[in-house]
Amino acid sequence: MQLALSTWQEVERYLEHSTGIIIPIGSTEQHGPNGLIGTDAICPTKIASGIEMQTDVLIAPTINYGMAQHHMAFAGTVTIKPSTLIQLICDVVESLQHHGFTHFYFINGHGGNIPPITTAFCQLYHAASLAGKDTPRCHLANWWRNDAITSLAEELYHGAEGHHATVSEVALSYYAHPEAVKNVTLSPEVAPVLNEGENFYDAVDFRNKFPDGRIGSSPQLATVADGERFYHLAVEALTDDYQRFLATL
Questions:
Q1: Chain segment 96-155, per-residue pLDDT in tens
Q2: Which of 23, 65, 69, 221 has its CB surrounded by the most CB atoms within 10 Å?
């Protein structure tokens, strides 16, 4: 059940038997020469739609923008401040909590969102505790941080999965949008990685170290068929995880 495609009466009826909601969240940022700029939002949106087919759940509209300042040297990237993302998450949760929702399950597609999301959870818990109000139950599921996903990526790509513009996320985005598959020759085939003890600090530094936007990946290996395999693994794992989360008090 999609929140955006429901009426308020349908949401009221849903709340009579469930107070959980799934909120996909991603980013609008570069993903190398053949990765879609919407990859980080496309992946959790697609996974959430799969969970919707497995169980009775309400899916909120995807939060398509994230904290992506380190990609701003690449055309098309959009970033929002960490403080803006924190407040946006708090406003979404508090609005839905006002209507009776209690459990908020965020499916995340972007590593840069993790600190703001978890900080937003802390802020929500802090405010509720001091006000003596019911504390919302919030959970963050980073879809790619899953043993089954990691194992399949290693089996298929033998160390070329990488850390940004990964083969698995590009493949999953292609499965979601096969009409947008990009056939690009990449050089080098496997992108460079950071040296031990090295880091990147801003957009210019990121592009200097990773000129085509990839980190350690070879996403020309991505296929629609592989994306379908990652999709099914993620849907199975996160459906189970969501059901366990709903059972928490």
A1: 999 999 999 999 999 999 999 999 999 999 999 999 999 999 999 999 999 999 999 999
A2: 23
Return the residue matching tokens 């990946």. Answer: 217
Q: Are 169 and 143 in contact (CB under 8 A)?
A: no
Give the DSSP letter of residue 66.
B
Tell me which DSSP letter residue 37 carries: T
Domain positions in the chain are 3-246
Residues 85-109: b if buried by 16+ CB within 10 A, e if exposed: bbebbbebbeebbeeebbbbbbbbb
Q: If residue 24 lies in a helix (H) or strand (E), which one and from where to where?
A: strand 20-25
Q: Measured between alpha carbons, how far is 175 from 173 in angstroms, rounded to an integer? A: 5
Three-class SS of residue 103? strand
CATH code for the part of the protein at 3-246: 3.40.50.10310
d(CA 18, CA 141) in angstroms, rounded, equals 20
Question: Using CA atoms, how far apart are residues 55 and 225, in angstroms rounded to an integer?
Answer: 24
Alpha helix (H) residue ranges in the chain: 8-15, 39-54, 82-98, 114-131, 147-157, 167-176, 203-209, 224-246
Peptide bond into 188 cis (omega under 30): yes
The pTM assigned to this predicted structure is 0.97
